[in-house]
Design goal:
The structure holds two protein chains of two kinds. Chain A is built from four helices and nine strands, in the order βββαβββββααβα. Chain A is of the alpha+beta class. Chain A has a single domain, classed as RNA polymerase II/Efflux pump adaptor protein, barrel-sandwich hybrid domain (OB fold (Dihydrolipoamide Acetyltransferase, E2P)), CATH 2.40.50. The longest helix of chain A has 12 residues, at 118-129. The radius of gyration of chain A is 13 Å and the shape is globular. In chain A, 40% of the residues are buried. The model of chain B has no long low-confidence stretch (mean pLDDT 92). Chain B is 36% helix and 11% strand. The radius of gyration of chain B is 27 Å and the shape is globular. In chain B, helix 11 links the parallel strand 5 (259-264) and strand 6 (283-286). Chain B is built from 18 helices and twelve strands. In chain B, helix 5 (123-140) runs parallel beside helix 12. Chains A and B meet through strand 4 of A and helix 17 of B.
Chain lengths: 130, 517
Amino acid sequence: MANVPENLHYSKDHEWVRVEGDIAVVGITDYAQNSLGDVVYVELPKVGEEFAANESFGSVESVKAVSEVFSPVSGTVAEVNEVLNDEPEKVNGDSYGEGWMIKVRMSNSGEVDSLLTAAEYEDFTKAETE
Amino acid sequence: MRSTDITKVTSHISHNEALIFERSQTGRIGYRLPPLDVDETAIDEIVPKKFQRDDDLEGLPEVSEVDVIRHFTRMSTWNYSIDLGMYPLGSCTMKYNSRLNEKVARIPGFANLHPLADEKEAQGALQIIYELQHHLAEITGLPGVSLQPAAGAHGEMTGVMIIRAYIDARDGEGASANRRTMLIPDSAHGTNPASAHLSGFSVKTIRSTAEGLTDLAHLREICSHGDVAGLMLTNPNTLGLFERNIQEICQIVHDAGGLVYMDGANMNALVGVARPGDMGVDVIHLNLHKTFSTPHGGGGPGCGPCCSTAELEPFLPVPRIVKSESDVSPGGGATFRVDFNYPQSIGRVKAFFGNYGMMLRALAYIQTHGNDGLREATEAAVLNSRYIAHELASDYEKPFDAPSMHEVVFTDKRQSRKGVHTLDIAKRLIDYGFHPMTIYFPLIVQGAMLIEPTESVGHQELDQFVAAMRAIAREAVDDPELVLNAPHSTRIGRLDEAAAARKPVLRWKPKQAASAG
């Protein structure tokens, strides 16, 4: 069963958000990394780029496919996880920790409230696999 | 003597082959030059010092001719090819290519003709192009044909560029700038969005319904925005399902001022039975290297002709090959011309006339089949796929109920409960002597296995394939480890695909060999 930590917010595109003040840390969920298989390359944006909610900010390439990743919130990229350039496998090994992708300075922190809770996301993934 | 007692030489057929670098023996050479019969010139007089290498070609293998020949010949026997057995790669149409087509392509008059030969001296070659265009127009129901594109994705992009040029001409540059959205279903080939993007369009994805077909409500909604230039649709789609609402889909897009491009990758399900032009499609590409039995894979060359409605014909690439109404050949027959005079054309997309050898093969394929034969091939391709769909339905999950066309998709849902996934099933299939099916595509089906047998597989081999797949389904339950560690019968076992992608070793280097040793 996929790991779904309580304290995070989730999108239907299988990204997670951790709120730290006006910063949103974004990555992909355990369920997503498991479905993708071994990640071999992560393409991330540059610091300073702006994204609207649900806009694609990069892509994840696994042995199976290349998939876009979407920013669940609007804002400006404050930091990207450079470690993933050399160690994309962190996305598989620690998707909620060292496998984080970008930090977004949110322009509308209210958007977080429309995301799924852990319980809702768990139900959502169950429905998807059935 | 038992077979296990035999000490095999390293070149034994069952052994892995040493690298050519590892075969190197100091001082071995594969040639002997005759004694010099002119005065020797100092190398420095011909090649400046800075361009001379001083490492004495360190690391290059020192081998004799026979070493080289045996090394590469041995490895060439390891290839799995369509001439060896069934190749059920979904969405690839790996049908057998008749030797007759090869013979035709090698006729010296065609094979040795220079592409810059004068029109008068190339009448036969031009006639071949013209006649193939005519056949493809009849098969697709679309009268404008260009054989220039070099392969499928190239044909796609040509089709999209034609749509763009048409809309620019129809709406005027200013207004057409607001019409830059290309719609693509979520089941499409990945090359579709790439072709649209390269041609200056932004892509919007159309959802599939639970049945696996284009979601008409979603299509209508996005078409109502007024910025739609076109739709790129594969039919049958990549789930192997016929888009039965195709006429309505075309109508919705046309009503919104857009055009419909059809990806012809799956035409093997339609040739001789149904015509995209009759369905309302405006432009299509064909893969001669799939549907029309020209060689496929190994990097080509391919051929991806574009066929269009009469309305789009002025925008097709130039030059175009036309039949001259006024000139008559000395023998009294028609003559053929290379015509550049199409001012609205998107221009040239390929040097000379495209990959000509493919055209000869495709024409030979079409003419040897005839109308009835083409239809029969299509029927057999669909029948073979449905046979597999039926025979495997009790062992593998089939995500869609609709009858499959030329290919059928299954999932690993049942097997994954035991930890056996699509990749493992594909690897195990190698042990049974089959090339694996397409895996993890289409992306919208989790654990997809896309199987396309094509018409060139007989009943007996279909049954062998079914038996192998059923045996693997049993193994997944009784002995999952056997499947998880497959293949077992190959020279090299399961490869680490992630490591190969993350840390690729792309060439041999002396230092690596030394440190590995």
